[in-house]
């Protein structure tokens, strides 16, 4: 390792793709970002074009290298982090997707999940996968694709042919990490964290589960090989004749929330972080024990390094947080996200207004796919500043819902919470979060910890960094937000809980 080499991280998110280049100190050398199209074919359906995602990935990698004046050969490794659960199937020979990717937010398989509930299969699924049976995860999405896909690309097979082709190994299933690894290396591989989000993977045996494959009729022949998140053997290398013109090891991959856990250096049992993106994801490292939740949390794989035991985590998945701020902009209440803090501060309170951003149902700890967004408590005197403040408070209230479940499940007090993601640039939100949860909020200097985590995983695998302790030394605090013990939050939290109840079980068939 020399001073003029770096590690690159592809951060393929829900709304766009970012490529970041990090130096040995964990500092950002260059980055580039491009959005991709959000496709909404029907209410509650969300899709992405996988070909567009790959094209945008190549574009941002090239742009960041050009901006920094770097040659691709100066990258010692590439890491990948990705929107989790988003599911796609492609033709093994041609590489063409049979249909768009079905995004994690998509609710089209809610009826199928209710069938599982009626058949009393939820507990068995939870015991093996650590997951709630929900349309959020990949299994029902893959099942839907095999049952219903009308191929959009070159492959014009009829849906009835798809299962035969899947069983013959002619089709590849993958989450977005798998798709990018395939495009970069030609290998059909996923990592343990992404596999743990499919609802097809036993997190105790650390293997694809035959009974779950049978339940969802997803043949094992189409599933990727599962490898560590930081892989000393690499997933493969890029093609010297490809768009980078160099052979670079692709050596690390983590689902976005696990990548943020790794980037925040939450390597020890009891370490916790919350990432504020399109949704919010609160993870608590539980060490080598897969702690079962009695309070609506997910048990998930945190990360694994080559030759080392799996580290597990408890997770509270909140579907809509940053997306609620985007909604404020979409409906014209704000011009940009930066306005929210000033508008919220312009009033002393929400004046009794509560906002429940259940646009795509409620995640942890409620798990109600039929909940919908709700505003309660408005009067003729309610202004947009009250609604904006209520939206920001809803992010903090949802996090408290999860924090209380975490404490109950793990028996660990959360004295400090590391935060990251776009919304934490908002000081008002960070202080509200500290007050409402009742714990110190710590914001790092590098808040793009998702990309940083995948860079760390890849860099450790190739020896760019020696060990996790070296990474801890890179982590630096930007600002701490202590909780205000005098903040009057308990009464407001009770009212928030009442508002949540009013949002539940709203989306029913006519």
Automatic annotation (TrEMBL):
Record keywords, A-Z: ATP-binding, Glycerol metabolism, Kinase, Nucleotide-binding, Transferase
Domain of life: Archaea
A single cellular component GO annotation: cytosol
Top enzyme class: transferase
Chain positions recorded as ADP binding sites: 14, 18, 278, 322, 422, 426
Residues binding sn-glycerol 3-phosphate: 14, 84-85, 136, 256
Catalytic activity, EC: 2.7.1.30
Residues reported to bind glycerol: 84-85, 136, 256-257
Domain spans labelled Carbohydrate kinase FGGY N-terminal: 6-263
Pathway the protein takes part in: Polyol metabolism; glycerol degradation via glycerol kinase pathway; sn-glycerol 3-phosphate from glycerol: step 1/1
GO molecular function: ATP binding; glycerol kinase activity
Reactions accelerated catalytically: glycerol + ATP = sn-glycerol 3-phosphate + ADP + H(+)
Domain Carbohydrate kinase FGGY C-terminal residue range list: 273-461
Residues binding ATP, per UniProt: 14-15, 278, 322, 422
UniProt-listed GO biological process terms: glycerol catabolic process; glycerol-3-phosphate metabolic process
Described function: Key enzyme in the regulation of glycerol uptake and metabolism. Catalyzes the phosphorylation of glycerol to yield sn-glycerol 3-phosphate.
UniProt similarity note: Belongs to the FGGY kinase family.
Annotated protein name in UniProt: Glycerol kinase
Protein's organism: Halococcus saccharolyticus DSM 5350
Lineage: Archaea, Methanobacteriati, Methanobacteriota, Stenosarchaea group, Halobacteria
């Amino acid at each position: 390792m020399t001073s003029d080499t770096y590690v690159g991280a592809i951060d393929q998110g829900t709304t766009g793709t970012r490529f970041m280049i990090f130096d040995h100190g964990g500092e950002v050398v260059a980055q580039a970002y491009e959005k991709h199209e959000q496709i909404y074919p029907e209410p509650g359906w969300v899709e992405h074009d996988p070909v567009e995602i790959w094209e945008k990935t190549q574009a941002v990698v090239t742009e960041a290298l050009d901006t920094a004046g770097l040659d691709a050969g100066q990258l010692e490794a590439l890491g990948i982090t990705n929107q989790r659960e988003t599911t796609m199937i492609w033709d093994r020979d041609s590489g063409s997707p049979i249909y768009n990717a079905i995004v994690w937010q998509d609710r089209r398989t809610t009826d199928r999940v209710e069938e599982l509930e009626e058949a009393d299969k939820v507990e068995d699924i939870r015991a093996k996968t650590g997951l709630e049976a929900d349309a959020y995860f990949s299994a029902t999405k893959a099942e839907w694709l095999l049952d219903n896909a009308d191929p959009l690309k070159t492959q014009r097979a009829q849906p009835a042919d798809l299962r035969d082709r899947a069983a013959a190994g002619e089709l590849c299933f993958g989450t977005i990490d798998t798709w990018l690894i395939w495009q970069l290396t030609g290998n059909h591989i996923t990592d343990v964290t992404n596999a743990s989000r499919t609802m097809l993977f036993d997190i105790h045996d650390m293997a694809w589960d035959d009974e779950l494959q049978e339940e969802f009729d997803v043949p094992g022949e189409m599933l990727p090989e599962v490898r560590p998140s930081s892989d000393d053997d690499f997933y493969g290398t890029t093609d010297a004749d490809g768009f980078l013109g160099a052979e670079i090891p692709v050596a690390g991959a983590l689902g976005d929330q696990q990548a943020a856990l790794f980037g925040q250096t939450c390597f020890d049992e009891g370490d916790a972080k919350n990432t504020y993106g399109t949704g919010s994801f609160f993870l608590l490292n539980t060490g080598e024990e897969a702690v079962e939740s009695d309070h609506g949390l997910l048990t998930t794989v945190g990360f694994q390094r080559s030759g080392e035991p799996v580290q597990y985590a408890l997770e509270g998945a909140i579907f809509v947080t940053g997306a609620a701020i985007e909604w404020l902009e979409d409906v014209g209440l704000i011009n940009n996200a930066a306005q929210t803090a000033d508008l919220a501060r312009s009033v002393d309170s929400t004046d009794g207004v509560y906002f429940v951003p259940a646009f795509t149902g409620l995640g942890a700890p409620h798990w109600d796919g039929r909940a919908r967004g709700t505003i309660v408590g408005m009067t003729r005197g309610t202004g947009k500043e009250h609604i904006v403040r209520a939206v920001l408070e809803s992010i903090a209230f949802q996090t408290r819902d999860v924090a209380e479940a975490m404490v109950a499940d793990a028996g660990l007090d959360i004295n400090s919470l590391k935060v990251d993601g776009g919304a934490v640039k908002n000081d008002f939100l960070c202080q509200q979060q500290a007050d409402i949860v009742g714990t110190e909020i710590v914001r790092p200097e590098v808040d793009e910890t998702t990309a940083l985590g995948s860079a760390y995983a890849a860099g450790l695998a190739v020896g760019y960094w020696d060990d996790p302790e070296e990474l801890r030394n890179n982590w630096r605090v930007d600002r701490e937000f202590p909780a205000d013990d005098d903040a009057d939050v308990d009464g407001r939290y009770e009212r928030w809980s009442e508002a949540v109840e009013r949002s539940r079980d709203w989306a029913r068939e006519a």
